[in-house]
Amino acid sequence: MRLLEQGRGTPATVDEAVRSRAGLRFGPLELLDAFGLEEELATSAALYDLRGRPERLKPCAVHEKLLARGCRGRKNSRGFYVYGENPPGTVNSVLSEIISGFSARPAGSEEVFRIVIDAVVSEARALAQESIASVADVDTAVKLGMGWPMGPFEWDRALRGT
Question: Are 1 and 62 within 8 A, CB to CB?
């Protein structure tokens, strides 16, 4: 969502970059739509509060603005994408109204992937450093719970070539 807010792409370009590079079935914004934007915002807000309100976990304005416009994800066929009669992957046009400079400075696929994976790795490191979970447990949880082919620490090692 932060990439969208920064004008770095559309939901389709962000999802495609992560999906194709990571070998995932769904991109991050597609997953948010699938799970429901209300539920995801409540979860994000709870984690933000529980972790001491770090800026990196602050809920995104675009998430709140979508909900304010009645966009709930697949629940009502409008989220980051619009569903129903529309072709698959149709980006919700309301995004260009609620995001200043929407897709004004698009990032390339590799850059999008690196930004996303770096954020995931950074949060995984915080969990391990604070002894919330071990490195192995974080990797296992991401693979089993999210269906990723590799966990964050495995991605980090692979991308650094170690």
Answer: yes
Per-domain boundaries in the chain:
1-107, 108-162
CATH number of 1-107: 1.10.1040.50
**To which residue do tokens 């999906």 refer?**
19
**The two three-digit tokens of residue 159, written as one number:** 């991308």
Q: Is 162 buried (19+), middle (13-18) or exposed (0-12) by CB count in 10 A?
A: exposed
Please state the pTM of the whole predicted model: 0.91
- For 148-157, the pLDDT digits (tens) are 999 999 999 9
Model confidence band, residue 161 (pLDDT cutoffs 50, 70, 90): confident
